[in-house]
Design a protein that fits this description.
332 residues, alpha+beta, four-stranded antiparallel beta sheet, 10% strand
Length: 332
């Protein structure tokens, strides 16, 4: 009996996965063409890109997304993007201090009259949150709760590649059109006056055949997607587009809808190092920054791991020769 229950549960899980795949799922996330410098056991983060990514986070992402697991001092610690050997204690790093002082946070200590004032953040403080709590965040974003980005690359399948694909995957203006539709008026019941016709409303349509990310697959999507009000289509967002698809229901486009509109446009950020701020460049940089944020000690971990592996290889060779030396006169 238990075996039959196990088999039926497995078949049910397979059916759920199959139905999800049939509904479209999401496109496989990809990184930039040149790949990621941190990939592989010897890969290291591109710290210049991480520094630029912090600027993108501050100027673009921080208005909605928090990073509650990071403190300002982490930016100046060994392995951090703004580490300076002259300041082994990150709390003394003047650049990190200036970053912290740009934000004002509510002091946890009351003043002389018992009120709580705002003060410039210190290096020991966690990154400033854009909203005081989750309810305030939902109220400001139409009911959607912006996720905390501290470990977003660990929490999403694809990691940094998912961030890069999502930020660059929104449909271009050529794929989006807005049309007016007449509201349907119900016939009045007997003895009632006819309701005044409502004015025309609009709906946003998306042509998936004009989305470059969808033009490389085996399917040709004939139809349009109706974008819900307050939602935005992205082929890399997990979801189901069947309900909004006006076309062959067996071949609905992959992806889903999310409450975050496209955030990156060419030139939105003026990089301090003079790098051209294209959408792809900003997406790559912020993905590198979030990759570092998810594991600030990854560079030290890889360096220590490499040294440990070399030590173990040398130890294994010495043990092999020692074994044969000690037991050379004993038949094996």
């Amino acid at each position: 009996m238990n075996f039959l229950r196990f088999v039926s549960a497995g078949l049910g899980a397979i059916a759920v996965v199959a139905s999800a795949n049939a509904a479209g799922g999401a496109l496989h996330a990809h990184g930039p063409e040149e790949g990621w410098a941190f990939e592989g056991p010897l890969g290291q983060l591109d710290m210049e890109s991480v520094q630029r990514g912090y600027q993108v986070y501050r100027e673009v992402c921080a208005s909605c997304h928090s990073m509650r697991m990071l403190s300002y001092r982490n930016l100046g610690e060994p392995g951090g993007p703004f580490y300076d050997p002259e300041y082994p204690n990150a709390n003394d790093n003047p650049l990190v201090k200036s970053f912290a002082a740009m934000d004002e946070i509510l002091d946890t200590e009351p003043n002389d009259v018992g009120d709580y004032d705002y003060r410039p953040a210190r290096t020991s403080d966690t990154f400033k949150a854009p909203y005081p709590n989750a309810n305030a965040a939902r109220a400001a974003n139409g009911g959607a709760l912006p996720p905390d980005l501290s470990v977003i690359t660990k929490a999403r399948h694809g990691g940094a590649s998912y961030i890069y694909s999502l930020m660059t995957g929104y449909p271009s203006e050529e794929a989006i059109s807005t049309v007016e539709i007449e509201a349907e008026v119900e016939a009045p019941a007997e003895g009632e006056e006819a309701a005044a016709p409502a004015g025309p409303t609009t709906e946003t349509l998306i042509d998936p055949s004009r989305i470059e990310a969808l033009s490389h697959g085996d399917h040709h999507y004939e139809g349009t997607l109706v974008q819900p009000v307050g939602q935005y289509y992205n082929p890399y967002m997990a979801g189901d587009t069947t309900a909004q698809w006006r076309g062959d229901p067996r071949h609905a486009p992959p992806g889903g809808f999310l409450a975050m509109p496209p955030q990156l446009t060419d030139g939105r950020v003026s990089y301090l190092d003079g790098t051209e701020a294209t959408v792809e460049q900003m997406a790559k940089d912020v993905a590198n920054f979030l990759q570092w944020a998810g594991e600030p000690k990854q560079s030290q971990r890889k360096s220590t791991g490499l040294a440990a592996l070399i030590y173990l290889v040398i130890l294994a060779v010495l043990l092999w020769f020692s074994f044969h030396r000690i037991w050379r006169k004993v038949d094996h």
